[in-house]
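Reply to dn_fold:

You asked what the input looked like. This is it:
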Amino acid sequence: DRQFVDGGFFVPEAKSGVAWVDEDTLWVGTDWGEGSLTESGYPRVVKEWKRGTPLSEARTLFEAEASDIGLWPVSFETAQGRISMLFRSLTFFTSEAYLGLDGRLVRLDLPVDSDFKAVFQDHAVFSLRSAWTTGGRTYAAGSLLAIDLDDLLAGRLSPSVVFAPSARVSLDSVATTRDRLLITTLDNVRSRLYRVKFADDEWTKEEMALPGLGAASIADASDDSDIFFYTYEDFLTPDSLYLSLDGKDEKLKSLPAFFDFDGIEVSQIDATSRDGTNIPYFFVAPKGFEADGTAPTLLYAYGGFEVSQRPSYSATVGTAWLERGGAFVVANIRGGGEFGPEWHQAAVQENHHRNFEDFIAVAEDLVATNRTSPNHLGIMGGSQGGLLVGGTFTLRPELFNAAVSQVPLLDMKRYHKLLAGASWISEYGDPDNPEHWAYIQTWSPYHLLREDATYPEVFFWTTTRDDRVHPGHARKMVAKLIDMKHPVLYFENTEGGHGSGSTNAQRAQIDALQFAYLWKKLGG
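and this is what came back:
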């Protein structure tokens, strides 16, 4: 799902990447024919293409291994000029960075599990996924660091710290303007936005005021000026676009409000997971809510690949659920990036069981505090979240009365053999390795199904042309449930990719099916 967008781009659906080197030269990574893609289905060959020449004559610049995830070119537009780079993804979370320099490629001596963010004022800016000791100093995982490019090329590895994390404060995103580095952080899963200046060999930051305790994102920034745009939203505030100009912010436009939020309240609560870890969740209570165990409650999470679940405005959830009296819950379980790399790494491979334990802990807390009851509690998630839902309802079927599993991973014995699945081994493990399969089978939904269990009537949906998670996962799961005589609902859209359809009408149909199902199961 990652995309580089600063002067180059990678489109997952097209499986190609392009970057401008100069006005007459492109670096191109794409499907060049047999043997040019990795086992994950992404480009492993990048070529240099000159203006006015046939693409077939493009010169091979670099070849990655078939076992790598992929190879992508990127160019960074900076105030000092354009800088071209190649990123060789070894696994989903490790990569090698190469700098184009005088017609050759030079590998940068950075930790392979670092995340390269930007080139800013002749500095390489990157974050750490694990602690790094260099130059007699140790830098914490989750830090944002900067090294002068000349020093980096000369092997002088003494980075400066732009941002240092703390227990509940993590780096979220990085962007650049001409004279400022822009960073957003998550402070207990609420956004904070900073403009950072580099002068006299020091980084100084200035916090910008946000409209509330929601989610902010950099929408666009220019390397020709310090003007930039950012967005803000929360559970009750529609996505709004702001312009930052000369230190002043102006709200330019906002999506319309689609539901009445009068009386709706948002709170943040901690549940305790099986190993004693506090798992925060947002509880959005409908107007007139009473903790009497009868509230129809929808619990949502993702919990993977460092993806954070921030407060967000959903017109669909508002109109189809909250306005009707339903409560909505977003759980910030381990596997996501809410509290930095360690929060993600705590639930990968042999520890992925914590993903389900955290989700279950939130569900149990909702019941224990009488906010809802199993008869009125449903769960929802898509992709990795679909796996989460699949594993959770098979592990604890008595805890829920409804479950929606969207474009899900479910058969974890064969996931790595289907479409982009091989790229996720660093997240889940390799089922062909007996030691890995020993733990994967303990939470693989397809393999947990039992004929003698009593499951809620689960709703699975997928798309025929999903090019990331194969629809075979959902099809096999539903077929096995039917063979075992368990009630199940299934819908497959023949159009669209890894989502709910290719048109607004198709997406609306999916939403209507989901919320009609949920209200029927939980609203009584």
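The mean pLDDT is 94.
Hope that clears it up.
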